[in-house]
């Protein structure tokens, strides 16, 4: 994991001097109602609406996005997914709190927010509130393939949710890409990361379908290990982790992008003379 104090230039490449982070996984310590699949990449709340707190298996590296996709919703509950960071080591908790808000936050060194679109933008000193209001609509993926957050440049392709393959998937995908759906809609992708500063502090950012919501919290201790927190709360029933490519995109990803841009909708991929594995990758990823 990269040291939090290491300076990183905007758009700096991940490479030998800055190795790519390890794949994200959920921690073995989690809420009593959570079941994590054997791969460690899917977390499901099996009953009630609470005891759904999960953590990242390892502390995050600076600029590393802990990205989840909402897989299942459950009607009848009020409230949605909660997301944030903690400097508490999950393995050292006497017990996982029932709720991330307020229980885990009250333990200290924890920053968690209920997911909404504009509630948590923290203005810098001297910045007008109007300037810190809702961010502008994100550009199309073909116009700007990278999301720049402070000193980090992150490929936007995997950050954006996608609909199920269908005749109208090409239209529905645009709703995710433009981020006009509710942020906790099924198949939305939500991520959290931190950006360190030379003074030893860090800003926490939340990303919704490829759109940076701005700093949600400032003054985090960048020198301490920071774990991601995902509270699978209330109407959010199941989430899965989405892995990002931080360096040069793989050949498989480049092939997928070319193929997806060459068809009207993803069901048309079935008619192409391609290996089934590549077809499935293009349709579902």
UniProtKB/TrEMBL annotation:
Pathway: Protein modification; protein ubiquitination. It holds the Pfam family Neuralized. Residues 250-285 form the SOCS box domain. Transmembrane segments: none annotated. Residues 1-22 are annotated as: Disordered. InterPro entries: B30.2/SPRY_sf, Neuralized, NHR_dom, SOCS_box, SOCS_box-like_dom_sf. GO terms for biological process: intracellular signal transduction; protein ubiquitination. One of its GO terms (molecular function) is ubiquitin protein ligase activity. SUPFAM superfamilies: SOCS box-like. Residues 23-244 form the NHR domain. PANTHER family: NEURALIZED, NEURALIZED-LIKE PROTEIN 2. This is Neuralized E3 ubiquitin protein ligase 2. It comes from Sciurus vulgaris (Eurasian red squirrel). The gene is NEURL2.
